[in-house]
Amino acid sequence: MSAEPFSPRRRMLRLYDRTMLGRRERRYYGDSGFYNSDYWGTQAASQREASEALVDRLVSSSADKQGRILDVACGLGASTKRLTLSYPPEMITAINLSETQLAEGRKRAPGCTFLRMDAARLEFPDSHFDAVICVEAAFHFDTRAMFLHEVLRVLRPDGSLVLSDILFRKSLQSWVLQEYVPRANQVPDIQSYRQLLQNAGFTDIDVRDATDACLGGFRRSLSGWPAAERRAGQITLATSLRDAFFCRLVAGYFGAICKIYVLASARKPPALGR
Prior knowledge:
- This protein is α/β, with parallel strands linked by helices.
- The protein has a single domain, classed as Vaccinia Virus protein VP39 (Rossmann fold), CATH 3.40.50.150.
- It has helices at 8-20, 23-28, 47-60, 78-83, 99-108, 144-154, 175-180, 190-200, 212-231, 237-257; strands at 69-72, 92-96, 113-116, 129-135, 155-168, 203-209, 258-267.
- The protein has a seven-stranded mixed sheet, with helices on both faces.
- Helix 9 (212-231) runs antiparallel to helix 10.
- It is globular.
């Protein structure tokens, strides 16, 4: 489960550990612990609201909110904390490969269980969870297909999987994608993503293109955020100009490499005889 000191996985974890706790990033996300594109289709007024809206939208697609739920790639625990609005903390388990992020999660969502674990090699017994959620991370897993098969195994019959995910442009095989997105995870379109879920054994599959509501809203918000902060008197003109350059660079980069933002839900088939 451990990664070599200079492996792509270790470099990726260090990158996320550093940026998720960065001063600029924490300001942009309202010090909420979120760190993704999120859902802007509900007219969210801030990145934090959009982040919360994405988790709420995914949870609303989950069939059963009474049993155990697994939060995969939980980051700093913001999604885990949001889940406590729908699930008792003792029924929530969150996993991640970064001990730094797990430590933050334990502080942010006390009462929930946080474990270091590989999403493609889950260390849980069969039929252990009633629901699994994964927010904007499956493209990193080695591989996404192995993750889906593992989720099917650990879900109880009729259990739910809900996730958001990103499909990247095949023509832009940048060094970033080569480093941090396994080649096997290059899925070209919605139909292929649906087939991936079918191949894993899921039923009641719903895969939607939410690119504008999620990634589009994120890019628009990020690009305009430094000016809004300056107008509100939160930062100086110099900081606003510096942040504006950085934010527009990031927004443009995501627009160049990301093809489709996916919202998906699926269920494990019910047990025979039900």
